[in-house]
Amino acid sequence: MPKTLYIFAGSVWAAVAELAVAELGYKEGDVTFKTVNLMEGENFAASFLKINPNGTLPTLESDGKSHTSTAEVTAALVKDAPIKVKAGSSIIQTIHEDKYDPNFAMLLARNDEELNAKSAGLAGMFLSKRQAALEKLSAEPGAEEFKAFYDTKKGQNGGMLAIVTGKAPAEHKNGFLAQSQAHFDNVKSAVFTVLPGFLPDSGFIGGEIPGEDDFHVGAWLTRIAATTGAKSADDALAALEKAYGAPVPAQVAAYWGTWTARPSWKKVYADGLH
Ligand SMILES: N[C@@H](CCC(=O)N[C@@H](CS)C(=O)NCC(=O)O)C(=O)O
Ligand SMILES: *[C@@H]1O[C@H](CO)[C@@H](O)[C@H](O)[C@H]1NC(C)=O
């Protein structure tokens, strides 16, 4: 059955679905990839909100149905796949918990220096382009039915943008710095305590080949490595160690090596870690 998968090259959660497609034996043409440019806020177009009212990636259309979360998208890809793999577990929910959110891990800033760097970099550009897209798209014909969505997003994204551009009240900024520090600590504890609790000593959670859990954990870990400045498979363990002040646990290091040796991983991250 034909499938359309909506992705974006910089998206951590879309990479879960991309790893799954690459691993699961789908043939050329079984899955049509469509890019939704998150940097330009294309996910906020009413035409996309009709497919996924949350406006998030990945999104999968299959069997006349829309799958609108990473977990559902990946489960549908696993279910219909030519290659059968180990079904997912509660690990999927764990890695998707808000306290380990890999997108906030990228945006966070723990002090003024980090905030200035984020503001001048991709994060600042991302927030301002999104706000412009929200303003424009919410005024277009057909946008009325999504008014509540647009209002919420404008508030959330606008709040972040104000902090990054130095226009927010001091207490908002300080709240953000504190929330950033807490998030950084949570992500660190995921790498040092939570992952070692479920990762094998060698191979994948799914065994010899990646299973459903592995698609989620592999993409999450790759994003976290990217947030510490890693640029390739080879420099990631050093980058993580430097950021967190301790060598990553043996299982995490082994798992990183196992994933990054896979052709699927090399394909999905050919243009860099994200
Ligand atoms: N809980 C959702 C989160 C998905 C998500 O946040 N995706 C990001 C890309 S990695 C996105 O589409 N962000 C766009 C936005 O929030 O505007 C899921 O697991 O599907
Ligand atoms: C939108 O996101 C919320 C919160 O994560 C979730 O409860 C809801 O099911 C999502 N809706 C769709 C259509 O995916």
UniProtKB/TrEMBL annotation:
Transmembrane segments: none annotated. It comes from the Eukaryota. Keywords: Signal. InterPro entries: Glutathione_S-Trfase_N, Thioredoxin-like_sf. Pfam families: GST_N_3. Residues 1-104 form the GST N-terminal domain. Residues 1-22 form the signal peptide. The keyword Cell membrane does not apply. This is GST N-terminal domain-containing protein. The lineage of its organism: Eukaryota, Fungi, Dikarya, Basidiomycota, Agaricomycotina.
